[in-house]
Amino acid sequence: MGITTKCVVILLLGSALAACAGGEDRDAVFNIDSGGNANQPFPDNYRPELLAFMRTYLNNPVGVHGAVMADPVQRTVGGRMRYVSCLRFAPRESDGSYREPRERAILYVNGRLDRVAENAGELCAGAVYAPFPELEKLTR
């Protein structure tokens, strides 16, 4: 078998395997991994999970001021149903002053923190905030 024949066989084998991966089974796996449009579970551990994330997200997690958070609610994000909680806080600068409060949308997939959206405007419209003192008490 020549090199050209081997290349054709490899390409055909790859195409055959790709065809086997297609169809409903592939979509089911995609929905499991990404959350799809299936009913999303409520993120039960959203507060401790968010605190752990914020320790790494903030350059200096000590001295956060004015932290408030909205409980997760279901919203459509990119055409998919997601739980979203909203967070507002003012991080402390290295000189001891505080920045303007930041608002972030926290997105959850399959009950776990998936990402933080820095442009939270529409996602957090109408959010009902409550104090989040645990964020203000973070240490390094």
Mean pLDDT: 79
Instruction: Extract low-pLDDT stretches.
Output: 4-33
Q: How much of the sequence is in beta strands?
A: 25-35%
Q: What is the total domain count? A: 2
Number of strands: 5
Radius of gyration: 22 Å
In DSSP terms (H or I, runs of 4 or more residues), the helix count works out at 4
* Category by helix and strand content: alpha+beta
Helix content class: 25-40%
Basic shape: globular
Signal peptide: 1-21
Keywords: Signal
Commentary on this structure:
By secondary structure, the chain is an alpha+beta fold. The protein folds into two domains: 3-34; 46-136, no CATH class. The chain contains four helices and five strands; from the N terminus they run αααβββββα. It has a five-stranded antiparallel sheet. β1 (65-77) and β2 (80-90) form a beta hairpin. The longest helix is centred in the first third of the chain and has 19 residues, at 3-21. The protein is globular.
Quick rundown:
By secondary structure, this protein is α+β, with helices and mostly antiparallel strands. 33% of the residues lie in helices and 29% in strands.
